[in-house]
Specification:
The chain is 8% helix and 42% strand. With 107 residues, the chain is mainly beta.
């Protein structure tokens, strides 16, 4: 697991079967270490404050393979339901899903 929290002094991964402190591996704020629980939270210390937070990168992609196929084909008729910001609950966590589609042109 890798976590980038530039202003954090300490980061702990908290899972269903325990917790583990992630060592800082770079002064820029990169913490990393082995952790196998896919449903984890983070506890980070910022100065004297300690907060628990969700890692947005632990959630699955919001676009399905079929959505990507239709996007690539140019035939996705309900794109407005997929792209942009939409309130949602994912794995019991309420928040906002945000999807952007960017395509580069090759020369």
């Amino acid at each position: 697991m890798r976590v980038f929290l530039p202003d954090a002094r300490r980061v702990v991964a908290i899972g269903e079967h325990g917790e583990r402190e992630l060592p800082r591996i770079d002064d820029a704020g990169l913490f990393a270490g082995p952790f196998d629980d896919p449903h984890y939270r983070l506890r980070a210390q910022f100065g004297d404050n300690e907060v628990e937070l969700e890692d947005a990168y632990r959630f699955p992609p919001l676009l399905s393979d079929y959505d990507l196929y239709l996007l690539g084909e140019g035939n996705h008729l309900r794109l407005y339901e997929k792209l942009g910001a939409h309130p949602l609950t994912c794995e019991g966590v309420a928040g906002v899903g945000f999807v952007v589609w960017a395509r580069t042109r090759s020369a």
